[in-house]
Amino acid sequence: MIEDGLTPEAISYSGVISAFARHGSRAKDRENALAWLNLLEKEGLPADTKSYTTVIAVYAKVGDFATAESLLGRMVEKGHSPDVVSYTAVIDACAKGGREAAAATYLEQMVQQGLSPNERTFTAVIDASAKRGDSDQAERMLERMADQRLSPDLICYNTVIRSYARQGDISGALRRLNSMLDQKVMPDVISFTPIIMEVSNMKASSEVRTGIIGKIFERMIQLRVKPDRVLLPRLNSALGKAYVAQKCEGLLEVVKKRSVGAPVKKPVTYL
To answer: Alpha carbon of 35 to those of 5, 40, 45, 241, 259: distances in Å?
Structure first.
């Protein structure tokens, strides 16, 4: 277009930026997306919020916090107002790029700008908090979601459960597991795996560890959650291969006998 003497409009540049962004997992495409954004500004054309956000998101996906943060600052300097998607992408970059502590800071910054975080924003902050080992902050994020009438999903709950488990707080992990059931969010095998893994490594007698794992496994079966290849070896080691196999086979019969819409039984406390 330029070679033909035609002057492309901003929308043309945005289209090219989006095209490269679709393949942003490759470094060259990320660089090209950023280069076209730079060219857009160099030509004196107005780069809109969408163009900036598209490039920010590309770098956020690979955890390049420095570039994502720099672009966000550049947006503001150029007189553009970052939107929820812009901030969420930067927060996601915080979680993936080793800048977990900055995630909450950007959350507060976007709130101060009059923006309302959505489920994806809070999920990114929760992820960052969990990676930092800050279960308390992750819990506060869940509470803020409830205050704003947002519903945490399975990923949110699993992230908090994993955070508790990694800190060795089995009671906290089980408490959060029970609370998700109270909210009618059904756990999956990922919900149970970090808890059982941590119990199997805890400093206690073999009898105590086996007893706890056995109760958690029974709860999995009650909820029709089948162990995967990651969890199965730990269960076999703690409870015996024959016992675990029998329970898993019986799981199919449980599914047949129970109606799909049957209410979830009241969660129990294992510790």
So the answer is: 21, 9, 14, 57, 56
Contacts 24+ apart (CB under 8 A), 255-261: 255/224, 258/224
Q: Could you tell me which CATH number the domain at 1-132 has?
A: 1.25.40.10
Contact residues for 151 (Cβ-Cβ < 8 A; gap 6+): 119, 145, 183
- Find the angle CA(121)-CA(117)-CA(174) to the nearest 5 degrees: 55
Residues 94-129 pLDDT 10s: 888 888 889 999 999 999 999 999 999 999 999 999
Instruction: List, for residues 59-83, the tens digit of each pLDDT value.
Output: 998 889 999 999 999 989 988 889 9
C-alpha separations of 267 from 93, 177, 191 in Å: 36, 9, 14
Instruction: Read off the amino acid at residue 57.
Output: A
Across residues 246-258, what is the average pLDDT? 67
Determine contact, residues 124/91, Cβ cutoff 8 Å.
yes
Cβ–Cβ < 8 Å for 214, 208: no
Would you state the structure tokens that stand for residue 255, as one six-digit string?
């599914």
Mean per-residue pLDDT, 42-57: 82
Torsion 213-215-218-224 (CA) sign: negative
191: helix, strand or coil: helix
Residues of the chain with CATH 1.25.40.10: 1-132
> How far apart are alpha carbons 253 and 70 in whole angstroms?
56
- Ramachandran area for residue 265 (φ above 0: left; ψ -120 to 50: alpha; else beta): beta
> How far apart are the C-alpha atoms of 222 and 269, rounded to whole Å?
14
Half-sphere exposure (Cβ direction) of 212: Cα atoms closer than 13 Å: 22
**What pTM was estimated for this model as a whole?**
0.76
Judge whether 33 and 24 are in contact, CB under 8 Å. yes
